[in-house]
Design brief:
heterodimer; A: mainly beta; 5-stranded antiparallel β-sheet; 0% helix; globular; B: mainly beta
Chain lengths: 113, 114
């Protein structure tokens, strides 16, 4: 089982709809979770992080965390064509003196005008 | 704003050449990371460092080495470049503590080895 799993997509939604991106992880001890957005040919850009169970909202983005079920999701409301990108889920794992992020393969999102 | 810069956006090298990729950050972050990203394989961690002169192997360290002589600078070295090292190389820095680190990426270097 991969440590962090995402549906590769592509996920296609019409403009104005809600896009729902999901991620599951295997390490029950993980405490922090991240969503990155990556446009084609560019580097990943941090969108949100979440540490506690429940929802965290930032503008059109909502991250949801359920540690008992080991999943984290990202909702994008009022999706825009500019949201078309690959979304990477990352889970922090403690390692030696610090930690490292384990990334999922990413979900490609396409928002159609 | 966190600023992470990488020495080159695009690089073309020959097989067998020694290649240096440099990453510089201006945020006084303790932790720095080197990843490579390939289609279908995602982001893979090559090496990371929690402090000056300190390094840890990631998931795919073979064929690479690193150097961290100053806190703000983390270099990735390909001792003898090979065609299977053609990839997008991404540097990241980390802040926030052992349990809640947030990583920020540089713009990436697209390396082609001929």
């Amino acid at each position: 089982q991969k440590e962090v799993e995402q549906n590769s997509g592509p996920l296609s939604v019409p403009e104005g709809a809600i896009a729902s991106l999901n991620c599951t992880y295997s390490d029950r001890g993980s405490q922090s979770f991240f969503w990155y957005r990556q446009y084609s040919g560019k580097s990943p850009e941090l969108i949100m992080f979440i540490y506690s169970n429940g929802d965290k909202e930032d503008g059109r983005f909502t991250a949801q965390l359920n540690k008992a079920s080991q999943y984290v999701s990202l909702l994008i409301r009022d999706s825009q064509p500019s949201d078309s990108a690959t979304y990477l889920c990352a889970v922090h794992m403690i390692y030696n003196q610090g930690g490292k992020l384990i990334f999922g393969q990413g979900t490609e999102l396409s928002v159609k005008p | 704003d966190v600023k992470v810069t990488q020495s080159s956006r695009y690089l073309v090298k020959r097989t067998g050449e020694k290649v240096f990729l440099e990453c510089v950050q201006d945020m006084d972050h303790e932790n720095m990371f080197w990843y490579r990203q390939d289609p279908g394989l995602g982001l893979r961690l090559i090496y990371f460092s929690y402090d000056v002169k300190m390094k840890e192997k990631g998931d795919i360290p073979e064929g690479y080495s690193v150097s961290r002589e100053k806190k703000e600078r983390f270099s990735l070295i390909l001792e003898s470049a090979s065609t299977n090292q053609t990839s997008m190389y991404l540097c990241a820095t980390g802040a926030g503590g052992r349990e809640r680190e947030t990583q920020y990426f540089g713009p990436g270097t697209r390396l082609l080895v001929l």
